[in-house]
Amino acid sequence: MTADPVIVSPVSATPDFAALTADLMNRIDSLCLLTEVPGTIQRTFLSRTAAEMHAALSAWATGLGLDAWVDPAGNWHAVLPGSAPDAPTFIIGSHLDTVPDGGKYDGLLGVALGLTLAGQLNRSSAVLPYRLEVLGFSEEEGVRFGVPFIGSLSALGQAGPLLNVQDSQGRSVRQAMRDFGLDDAHIEDATLSGPHLGFLEVHIEQGPVLEAAGQPLGLVSALVGHHRLKLSFTGRANHAGTTPMTLRQDALMAAAEWMLEAERLARDTPGLVATVGQIQAFPGASNVIPGRAELTLDLRHADDTLRAAKLAELEALLQQVSARRGVQAQAEVLTVIPAVPLDAGLQSGLQRAAGQLGLAPPTLVSGAGHDAMILARVMPAAMLFVRTPGGLSHHPDEAVAGEDVQAALEVVWKFLLGLEVRADPGAQVHPEAHADSGTQVDSGTQP
């Protein structure tokens, strides 16, 4: 017989969310003054500025009555203990690093929001049946070493093979950790352990969908998978003035025709996006017909089977276009990353919490990668998107509206108050093992 679930004890008063939002936004403004390049926002993995960010967050957390520390991988943690020493953990987090000349809210918003709510729960004297952890991953963007997710992979104990990767200065991850004051010999101590109820990442959308829908928040059902390819077209270079149009073997024109076919296919397939991000023509002279062209394709969709089928169509079109234009074409697959579905139970809990506030967040798919896709390998994971004005991110003008941030605070507050812990150990997920987590954790009362 399964014991009744335990939820957070009642709180005496509703928080002043407007004041909490104002404080959160002011703190983000102050934290973003910590930068490697004055006048911009830049926090690179294991930089001096990263250490300053850790110190500032720890001072904030300590002031809220939370324990804070940095693990051997450079991930920052703050914890509000549960009612029992062996209480399972629920994590709220995101990343602390940025791209060069980035924005204020990408990553940092999720950490600051989690810290704000953990502090408010502590002030309310609520008795938690779970341990609430706020986690700021040290690296997600992949700027310094060209490899993303070193922080979250370390949390899973899977970053070992990356320790010898070098940056542009020839310094390895391992050496950078030592220079930062970390003990790479004990990086396994960064691995999450014990039972975990799940992980929630609150993040700006970095896209225009919520703004177009007039919605402040969105629930992420999955993170898209993608194929990355390099394509080459080989024709014949010749004189631009003396070669008739009907006798040309123009590699660049063949590439251009195929690119338009790729765009048409993506437009005709809901959820599919196709991007040619790089293109080169050779020999590259204005008066020479290009004899060779090379380009890249980034193909993304949340359904791996459908994406593979559309890739096959594009490869068939590649051969048709090249044959029609008398050129040779090849496609080389560089990387394949599967789609990551997020936890249905956590999504339902967030939806119920939003409904209590009169909100109905739409469900959407994330076209970008996030730490949640790494944590989803070992525990239930969910994402809550906050509207991004203009869809602008990875840019100094990246913004959020205060009222949207307040909506996120209120939704996650209600979600945390309704998060259940069941006595059945089967309801707890250990990072050491994969699990089908859809029915193992719930938030709120079943309808």
Written account of the structure:
The two termini are 22 Å apart. This protein is elongated. The chain has helices at 17-31, 48-63, 108-123, 150-155, 173-180, 209-213, 251-267, 304-325, 344-356, 371-375, 402-418, and strands at residues 67-70, 76-80, 89-95, 131-137, 196-204, 217-223, 225-234, 238-239, 273-275, 279-282, 288-289, 292-301, 328-337, 340-341, 363-366, 381-386. The chain has 11 helices and 16 strands. Helix 9 packs across helix 11 (402-418). The relative contact order is 0.17. The chain has 2 domains: 17-223 and 339-427, 3-Layer(aba) Sandwich (Aminopeptidase), CATH 3.40.630; 225-337, 2-Layer Sandwich (Alpha-Beta Plaits), CATH 3.30.70. Strands 1, 2, 3, 4, 5, 6, 14, 15 and 16 form a 9-stranded mixed beta sheet that branches. Strands 7, 9, 10, 12 and 13 form a 5-stranded antiparallel beta sheet that branches. Mean pLDDT is 92; it is low at 425-447. The longest helix is centred in the last third of the chain and has 22 residues, at 304-325. Helix 3 (108-123) links the parallel strand 3 and strand 4. It is α+β, with helices and mostly antiparallel strands and 447 residues long.
